[in-house]
Specification:
The protein is mainly α. About 55% of the residues lie in helices and about 5% in strands. A hairpin with a 2-residue loop joins strand 1 and strand 2. Helix 4 runs antiparallel to helix 5.
Length: about 140
Protein backbone atom coordinates (compact mmCIF):
# COMPACT_ATOMS: atom_id res chain seq x y z
CA UNK A 1 0.00 0.00 0.00
CA UNK A 2 1.38 3.35 -1.00
CA UNK A 3 0.04 6.35 0.92
CA UNK A 4 1.25 9.89 0.52
CA UNK A 5 3.16 11.65 3.26
CA UNK A 6 1.10 13.34 5.97
CA UNK A 7 2.91 16.57 5.03
CA UNK A 8 1.89 16.43 1.36
CA UNK A 9 -0.83 18.90 0.42
CA UNK A 10 -3.91 19.01 -1.78
CA UNK A 11 -5.82 22.26 -2.16
CA UNK A 12 -3.06 23.71 0.02
CA UNK A 13 -3.98 21.43 2.93
CA UNK A 14 -1.79 18.76 4.54
CA UNK A 15 -3.26 15.38 5.49
CA UNK A 16 -6.03 15.64 2.86
CA UNK A 17 -4.12 13.65 0.19
CA UNK A 18 -3.24 10.94 2.71
CA UNK A 19 -6.83 10.71 3.91
CA UNK A 20 -7.96 10.41 0.29
CA UNK A 21 -5.41 7.64 -0.30
CA UNK A 22 -6.64 5.78 2.78
CA UNK A 23 -10.28 6.04 1.70
CA UNK A 24 -9.43 4.75 -1.79
CA UNK A 25 -7.28 1.94 -0.39
CA UNK A 26 -10.06 0.92 2.01
CA UNK A 27 -12.14 -0.12 -0.99
CA UNK A 28 -9.67 -2.94 -1.68
CA UNK A 29 -9.30 -6.26 0.08
CA UNK A 30 -5.67 -5.71 1.15
CA UNK A 31 -6.30 -2.75 3.44
CA UNK A 32 -4.48 -3.58 6.71
CA UNK A 33 -6.55 -4.00 9.87
CA UNK A 34 -4.79 -1.18 11.73
CA UNK A 35 -5.60 1.26 8.93
CA UNK A 36 -9.16 -0.06 8.73
CA UNK A 37 -9.63 0.59 12.47
CA UNK A 38 -8.15 4.09 12.35
CA UNK A 39 -9.83 5.32 9.13
CA UNK A 40 -12.09 8.19 10.13
CA UNK A 41 -11.57 7.43 13.82
CA UNK A 42 -12.43 10.33 16.11
CA UNK A 43 -9.36 9.63 18.27
CA UNK A 44 -6.79 9.66 15.46
CA UNK A 45 -5.44 12.29 13.12
CA UNK A 46 -8.42 11.75 10.82
CA UNK A 47 -10.70 12.77 13.68
CA UNK A 48 -8.71 15.90 14.44
CA UNK A 49 -8.78 16.81 10.73
CA UNK A 50 -12.52 16.20 10.38
CA UNK A 51 -13.37 18.14 13.56
CA UNK A 52 -11.12 21.02 12.58
CA UNK A 53 -12.97 21.44 9.29
CA UNK A 54 -16.34 20.29 10.70
CA UNK A 55 -16.79 17.72 7.94
CA UNK A 56 -18.36 14.35 8.75
CA UNK A 57 -16.30 11.35 7.67
CA UNK A 58 -19.19 9.99 5.60
CA UNK A 59 -19.25 13.19 3.54
CA UNK A 60 -15.51 13.28 2.88
CA UNK A 61 -15.50 9.55 2.09
CA UNK A 62 -18.27 10.05 -0.48
CA UNK A 63 -16.44 13.02 -1.98
CA UNK A 64 -13.21 11.03 -2.33
CA UNK A 65 -14.97 8.11 -3.98
CA UNK A 66 -16.98 10.36 -6.30
CA UNK A 67 -14.02 12.54 -7.33
CA UNK A 68 -12.29 11.16 -10.41
CA UNK A 69 -9.12 13.21 -9.75
CA UNK A 70 -7.32 14.92 -6.90
CA UNK A 71 -8.11 18.25 -8.55
CA UNK A 72 -11.84 17.45 -8.35
CA UNK A 73 -11.48 16.48 -4.70
CA UNK A 74 -9.54 19.67 -4.02
CA UNK A 75 -12.29 21.76 -5.60
CA UNK A 76 -14.91 19.94 -3.54
CA UNK A 77 -12.88 20.49 -0.36
CA UNK A 78 -12.41 24.20 -1.04
CA UNK A 79 -16.16 24.57 -1.64
CA UNK A 80 -17.01 23.42 1.89
CA UNK A 81 -18.37 26.25 4.07
CA UNK A 82 -15.81 25.68 6.84
CA UNK A 83 -12.81 25.52 4.51
CA UNK A 84 -10.97 28.73 3.74
CA UNK A 85 -7.45 30.12 3.78
CA UNK A 86 -7.66 30.73 7.53
CA UNK A 87 -8.83 27.24 8.52
CA UNK A 88 -6.34 25.60 6.16
CA UNK A 89 -3.47 27.72 7.52
CA UNK A 90 -4.43 26.88 11.10
CA UNK A 91 -4.63 23.16 10.28
CA UNK A 92 -1.30 23.19 8.44
CA UNK A 93 0.27 24.61 11.60
CA UNK A 94 -1.67 22.46 14.09
CA UNK A 95 -1.90 19.05 12.41
CA UNK A 96 1.83 18.41 12.00
CA UNK A 97 2.32 19.20 15.70
CA UNK A 98 -0.11 16.55 16.98
CA UNK A 99 1.75 14.35 19.42
CA UNK A 100 4.37 16.94 20.31
CA UNK A 101 4.59 18.29 23.86
CA UNK A 102 1.79 20.77 24.49
CA UNK A 103 -0.41 19.37 21.70
CA UNK A 104 -3.04 16.61 21.80
CA UNK A 105 -1.74 13.06 21.65
CA UNK A 106 1.60 13.65 23.34
CA UNK A 107 1.08 10.98 26.02
CA UNK A 108 -0.81 8.64 23.69
CA UNK A 109 2.10 8.80 21.22
CA UNK A 110 4.42 7.30 23.81
CA UNK A 111 2.03 4.43 24.51
CA UNK A 112 1.34 3.36 20.93
CA UNK A 113 4.84 3.69 19.57
CA UNK A 114 5.77 0.31 21.05
CA UNK A 115 3.37 -1.62 18.83
CA UNK A 116 2.27 0.77 16.06
CA UNK A 117 5.44 2.77 15.29
CA UNK A 118 8.35 0.67 16.61
CA UNK A 119 11.00 2.56 14.62
CA UNK A 120 10.37 5.58 16.85
CA UNK A 121 11.42 3.61 19.94
CA UNK A 122 15.05 3.53 18.79
CA UNK A 123 14.89 6.77 16.83
CA UNK A 124 12.45 9.14 18.58
CA UNK A 125 10.63 11.77 16.57
CA UNK A 126 8.40 14.59 17.73
CA UNK A 127 5.02 14.27 16.06
CA UNK A 128 2.58 11.71 14.70
CA UNK A 129 3.26 13.00 11.18
CA UNK A 130 6.97 12.29 11.69
CA UNK A 131 6.25 8.86 13.21
CA UNK A 132 4.16 7.91 10.20
CA UNK A 133 6.81 9.04 7.73
CA UNK A 134 9.55 7.25 9.63
CA UNK A 135 7.54 4.04 9.85
CA UNK A 136 6.76 4.02 6.13
CA UNK A 137 10.32 4.68 4.93
Amino acid sequence: MNLRSPHETLAGCCWLPRLADKVRASEGSHFPLLYRLSLGSPVGIDGFFLRHFNIPFSRIRAAVLESPTDEDLGQWFLSQPTVNVGTITKWNHYGPKLGTPGYPGSVFKHLIKWFVYPKSVKHPVDSFFDMIEQDEE
